[in-house]
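Whiteboard transcription, Tuesday session. T.W. wrote the C-alpha cells on the left side:
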C-alpha cells in the first residue's frame, strides 16, 4: 500500500520494531511506528487528542544501543532505530509501573489499566495490604511525610469530592497522568481551573487554593472527564448509578447526534441506559470538538428526557 505521506513528499524514516521494518513520516513517534507495525503498546497518560505528557512510563520500549528505556508515546522515531517492545527489560519495567500504580491507586474503574495489570502479571499485593487512609491529602505539606510502616502500601486514598451537581472527583483513582490539567489548560479549555499541587507522593490534582469546584474557575465543560483514563473524574449521573450498582454498560446504547444549542455543530455521543441519557461524550476524531464540549453539550441534556429538568445547570 502506498503511504500518503511518502506520496505527498514528506520525508520518511525507516526503523525496525521487533525485527520488523517500518517506515513512518518524519516527526512520528515510536508509538506511531508500533501502531503501524500492528504492535499494541500500553499507554495511560497518552491521549490521542493531547500532546504527550510523558509521565506514566507504561509505554517504555528498549532501543538497541541505548542505556535507558524510552517512552514510546513521546520519543520520535529515528532512522535506523532498532526498537524492542517486548524484551525482558521492557516487560519488567512495565510490570513495576503497574504494580506501583495498582498498590497505591484504586483502578476499579480503569479497565485498560486492569487489562495491563493482567497482561504483565503485575502483583501489587506483594507490597502489602493498602495502608489506612493517611488523612487529608489536600493538606499535605512539603517535607511533612508520615513514615511508612514497611508492612502496608501507601495509597493516594482520599474522600470523593462531591461539591456540585454535574461531576464528581475521586482522586483515590487518580494516577496523576496530567491529562485533565492539559485539557483544562492551554491545550483546550484555557480555563486553568485545576493543576498539580504538592510534590512527590503528595502530589495531587487540585483547584486553586483547593476550593470547591463551584468556587473555582471551572466552567463545567467536562473536558477533563473526557480524557481521564481511570474514572477519577466522572459525571454525577454515572457516579450515582455505579454507587447503586445500576451502571450497566452492556445494556447501554450510544447514539451520535449534533448538539442543537448553537451553530458550531459539535457531535455528541449520547450514552443511554433504560431510556435515559446517562452520559454525553464527543468523538475524539471530530474535526471541531476533538472530544471536547461546553457545559451545554456535555450536561444540558435533561430537557430531552421525560419529566423535564430535574437538576439545574450550575
Ligand atoms: S470541567 Fe472544564 S473547566 Fe472545569 S476543571 Fe474540567 S476541564 Fe477545567
Ligand atoms: S484526575 Fe484523571 S485525568 Fe486527571 S490526572 Fe488524575 S487520572 Fe489523570
Ligand atoms: S503513555 Fe507514554 S509515558 Fe505515559
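and on the right, the sequence the group agreed on:
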Amino acid at each position: 500500500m502506498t503511504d500518503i505521506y511518502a506520496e505527498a513528499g514528506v520525508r520518511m524514516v525507516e526503523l525496525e520494531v521487533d525485527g520488523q521494518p517500518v517506515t513512518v513520516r518524519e516527526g512520528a513517534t515510536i508509538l506511531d511506528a508500533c501502531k503501524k507495525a500492528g504492535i499494541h503498546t500500553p499507554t495511560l497518560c497518552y491521549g490521542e487528542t493531547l500532546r504527550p505528557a510523558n509521565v506514566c512510563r507504561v509505554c517504555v520500549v528498549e532501543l538497541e544501543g541505548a542505556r535507558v528505556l524510552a517512552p514510546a508515546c513521546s520519543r520520535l522515531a529515528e532512522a535506523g532505530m532498532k526498537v524492542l517492545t517486548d524484551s525482558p527489560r521492557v516487560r519488567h519495567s512495565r510490570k513495576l509501573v503497574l504494580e506501583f500504580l495498582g498498590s497505591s491507586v484504586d483502578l476499579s474503574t480503569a479497565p485498560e489499566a486492569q487489562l495491563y495489570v493482567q497482561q504483565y502479571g503485575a502483583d501489587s499485593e506483594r507490597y502489602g495490604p493498602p495502608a489506612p487512609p493517611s488523612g487529608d491529602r489536600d493538606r499535605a505539606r512539603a517535607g511533612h511525610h508520615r513514615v511508612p510502616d514497611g508492612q502496608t502500601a501507601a495509597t493516594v486514598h482520599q474522600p470523593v469530592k462531591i461539591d456540585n451537581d454535574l461531576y464528581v472527583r475521586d482522586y483515590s483513582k487518580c494516577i496523576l497522568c496530567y491529562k485533565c490539567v492539559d485539557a483544562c489548560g492551554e491545550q483546550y479549555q484555557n480555563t486553568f481551573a485545576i493543576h498539580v499541587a504538592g510534590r512527590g507522593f503528595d502530589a495531587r490534582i487540585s483547584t486553586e487554593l483547593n476550593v470547591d469546584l463551584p468556587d473555582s474557575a471551572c466552567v463545567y465543560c467536562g473536558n477533563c472527564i473526557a480524557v481521564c483514563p481511570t474514572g477519577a473524574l466522572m459525571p454525577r449521573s454515572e457516579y450515582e448509578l455505579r454507587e447503586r450498582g445500576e451502571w450497566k454498560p452492556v445494556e447501554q446504547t450510544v447514539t451520535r447526534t449534533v448538539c442543537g444549542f448553537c451553530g458550531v455543530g459539535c457531535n455528541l455521543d449520547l450514552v443511554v441506559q433504560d431510556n435515559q441519557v446517562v452520559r454525553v461524550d464527543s468523538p475524539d476524531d471530530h474535526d471541531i470538538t476533538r472530544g471536547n464540549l461546553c457545559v451545554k453539550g456535555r450536561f444540558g441534556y435533561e430537557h430531552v428526557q421525560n419529566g423535564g429538568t430535574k437538576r439545574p445547570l450550575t
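Someone added at the bottom: The two ends are 52 Å apart (CA to CA).
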